[in-house]
Amino acid sequence: MEWVSGLLASEPSSSNFFTYIFISLPLLSVVLGFVTYAILAERKVLGYIQLRYGPNRTGGKFGLLQTVADVLKLLIKEDTRPKQADRPLFWLAPIIAFVPSFMVLSAIPFTESVVFANFGVGLLYFIAVSGLTTIGILTAGWASNNKYALMGGMRSAAQMISYEIPLLMSLVGVVLFSGSMNLIEIVEQQQYVPYILVQPIGFIIFVIAATAELNRIPFDLPEAESELIAGYHVEYSGFRFAFFMLAEYVYLFAMSALITVLFLGGWQPIPGLGFIPDFVWFAIKFSIVVYMFMWIRATWPRLRADQLMEFGWKILLPAAMANIFLSAIVKELFF
Amino acid sequence: MTEEQDHQSNQNQEKDTVDPKAKDNIEEAKEQPADNPLNEESPEKITTPSDQQSSTKKERSTDTKSEPSPTEQSQTEKSKSDKPKSEHTKRPRKKHTKKDQPPEKKEPSPNQPILDHYVKIINKNLSKDAIDDAFVNRSSKELPTIVATPKYYFSIAKLLRDHEELQFHFLSDIHGIDYESHMEIYAYLYSMSRNQSVALKVKLDRENPAISSLAPLWKGASWPENEAYDLLGISFENHPDLKRILLGEDWEGYPLRKDYEPYDVEV
Amino acid sequence: MIRTEEMLLNVGPQHPSTHGVFRLVVKVDGEIIKEATPVIGYLHRGTEKLAEDLQYTQIIPYTDRMDYLSAMTNNYVICHAVETLMDLEVPERAEYLRIIAMELGRIASHLVWYGTYLMDIGTTSPFLYAFREREMIINLLNELCGARLTFNYMRIGGVKWDAPEGWIDKVREFIPYMREQLDGYHEFVTGNEIFLNRVKGVGQYTQEEAIQYSLSGANLRCTGIAYDLRKAEPYSIYHRFEFDIPVGETGDAWARYQCRMAEMAESLKILEQAVEQFPEDGKIMGKVPRIIKPPKGEVYVRIESPRGEIGCYIASEGKKTPYRLKFRRPSFYNLQILPKLLEGENMANLIAILGGVDIVLGEVDG
């Protein structure tokens, strides 16, 4: 990784530019590969829970190429735009929503060595950049010139603001214990005890807030199928729609990775099983988190907008604050 | 047997029965100059046990006819002959049964006192001429039926709802019917506390059918009255929101009227 | 000061939660509904007008298409009306077959409601669970009458088909299975905190309002009025069975949910007794004239359909076709209270309330 650091310190040049691109391409393909199969996995898990098969035609028995086919279909679909839509914003919105989702990935350490940008404040960077997506969603809702989309966009903005705060606050405990905002250091601190045991309240709050950030059931109000039809992306079709879809799943990837890093000890093995390579550990923990998200989606109903706000401000936020105090006391007394 | 075959055979059957029916009519006209039960008392003695059973079955249906029926009474006699006939061979016996029924007519309906009571209350509280007619509809599970005069229709409905001995709080149904001579509103009220039902009817002028709405009494009457307005063109006064609820405001004509010309004649 | 404006929102006719072609013009301030105006008639086929040119037997398939989720009760109401008018007797075996078919249909109909309601509220899985059981019921009814949705099973004076061999045993086996699944539904949904929050206190009305608006079925019983026509005016052979009328207390969507869930259990009770008492043999068609010509007169009968009180009015002139046929369609009546319930609610509650009323648009529009 010293090589990368050297590269970062070097003079900007066209060769550097291409080097960067070639370094990030594998990550991009890994992420896209994940997204492809995360969608498939979600459909399969949902299908399994709901007594059906899920995709089982395209690409063999397990529908391995279903998502690929879906993406291809979306690519060749006509790109429609409502006549009265705000054209530049309509065009820009999917990009605003999509780009930050990839930007956050660079901060996540997958193993000790596979990390793309080792920030000092990786945690802060992640939260800050992920918040940008809301602007994309709000823009999409506004630009579509559709009442349902507008409502979806508004809901999304309100929801993001309400849940960003407890999300951040729940992390203060982790930062207190680790004494760092660097994600690699946070993982290294969890060599023996993962933070889920030290920060159980923080973990629960973070998972709830993360679900809200991801717009997933029970917090999928911005796109509530049965109320707002599809919410902010109701007017999008073709590849622009795919962008939103992709952003959603990339965030699922990123959030699950972040939870793995912050609370489950990242690539740290369970003591005594260190012979299993670290990336396998990461993958296992990560899969558990992703599965949990899918499970929640399959079983829970959706909250109502006012209940969502109430829950965010009246329960989650005080709980997160209490958690900070509690963590500070525990830290002061026992560590 | 499929549906179609059913009907085909039905039609054939019908052709066969045309003549006997006519005969019946003549015979009946001779035998029953009026609905006088005394005339028919004697044939009862001929009844065989097997006949008796079928006669009890038919009892109610014939009784309705004796009651003032919703439509013109002149047709009552004729319709008697239209009674279903299953097999030709049994026809002679059927004729006897028909004659056996009238004596049972005298047996008043169990609901007759109830109806009388209602009528008494209405007459007492409103006016003697509030009720046009009152009878027990024996073919509809002995349903007391009150035919109101248009003027008192609303107040009778209100009385039926509010009077403590009546308490018909629940409006089950309200709809209109187009008898070519007049229009009619049929409302079915039910009292949950007393487990009794009553039908309230009112006859309207066909040319300009209008009646006060029951929606101020029962909010649930709002849409059904809209439906009657939409499909039959009966206008309801004091209705909070009278509109053509099913067909839309631009629809021409009132489909459930008997003289309605369909938009597309071919259909 | 920000200038705010009310927004006119069209919910439907193509909206996933209106369960058909139903349009609701909603005036919203943000997400708060100021005024809601239902617009119906998209599915109006003029059943009553068509019926005036049809023979009585021919009308039966049209009734299937009104409340297409519980076609059996619709079949029954027209047959019952004609039978009452003609004073026909229905053989016992046919009555039992009718009851079994109707109660199976009631469960199937409530299952669809359960699934779609939960889907409206945001969870998809119960829908598929409910449809698994519904599929079994539909298969049973399919074996009985050869159709899965529009049964056209009943005839004036009886039923069209006798139960195939072993069919009653299949129904018998289905009852304990369904009980087990019902417990599963309760385990899965009934205690869920989010679900309770979504339905408790939503779309609440009082007993007086329910009667004012002529509500029936679970929409009426949820306020605590134990009014079920199977008990109040026993038709067919319902007086032979022991069952309770489930009532709610609060008159909100939660009470309606509980009522409908309990009604399924009660239907199972009826089924159990009906299967036990089912006569070994006997006729399935009573003595019915080949041409059905009810005498001159009028009749109004009403029975309990899964959605409420379904009534049928026939004015007969003594001809082969009815002079006037009118159906009291419960969904049509039940829907009237919607604008009142929606006032001041938010968009999410709109769906929870509309779903809770349990309408079938085929029936609303007639």
UniProtKB/TrEMBL annotation, chain A:
Keyword Transmembrane: yes
UniProt subcellular location: Cell membrane; Membrane
Gene Ontology BP terms: aerobic respiration
Single GO cellular component term: plasma membrane
Topological relation to the membrane, as annotated: Multi-pass membrane protein
UniProt main location, coarse: membrane
Catalytic activity: a quinone + NADH + 5 H(+)(in) = a quinol + NAD(+) + 4 H(+)(out)
Family: Belongs to the complex I subunit 1 family.
Stated name of the protein: NADH-quinone oxidoreductase subunit H
Organism: Salinibacillus kushneri
TrEMBL record, chain B:
UniProt-annotated stretches for the region Disordered: 1-115
Biased composition annotated in UniProt, kind: Polar residues: 45-55
Keyword match Transport: yes
Compositional bias of kind Basic and acidic residues: 1-33, 56-66, 75-89, 99-108
Species in which this protein is naturally found: Salinibacillus kushneri
Keywords attached to this entry: Transport
Coiled coil: none
Protein name per its UniProtKB record: NAD(P)H dehydrogenase subunit J
Family: Belongs to the complex I 30 kDa subunit family.
One of the record's GO molecular function terms: oxidoreductase activity, acting on NAD(P)H
NADH:ubiquinone oxidoreductase 30kDa subunit domain: residues covered: 148-261
TrEMBL record, chain C:
GO molecular function: NAD binding; NADH dehydrogenase (quinone) (non-electrogenic) activity; quinone binding
UniProt keyword terms in alphabetical order: Cell membrane, Membrane, NAD, Quinone, Translocase, Transport
Location relative to the cell: Cell membrane
EC number: 7.1.1.-
Keyword Transcription found: no
Record-level GO cellular component terms: plasma membrane
Keyword Plastid: no
Any Pfam family the entry gives: Complex1_49kDa
Coiled-coil blocks: none
Function: NDH-1 shuttles electrons from NADH, via FMN and iron-sulfur (Fe-S) centers, to quinones in the respiratory chain. The immediate electron acceptor for the enzyme in this species is believed to be a menaquinone. Couples the redox reaction to proton translocation (for every two electrons transferred, four hydrogen ions are translocated across the cytoplasmic membrane), and thus conserves the redox energy in a proton gradient.
Family membership: Belongs to the complex I 49 kDa subunit family.
Protein name in the entry: NADH-quinone oxidoreductase subunit D
Gene: nuoD
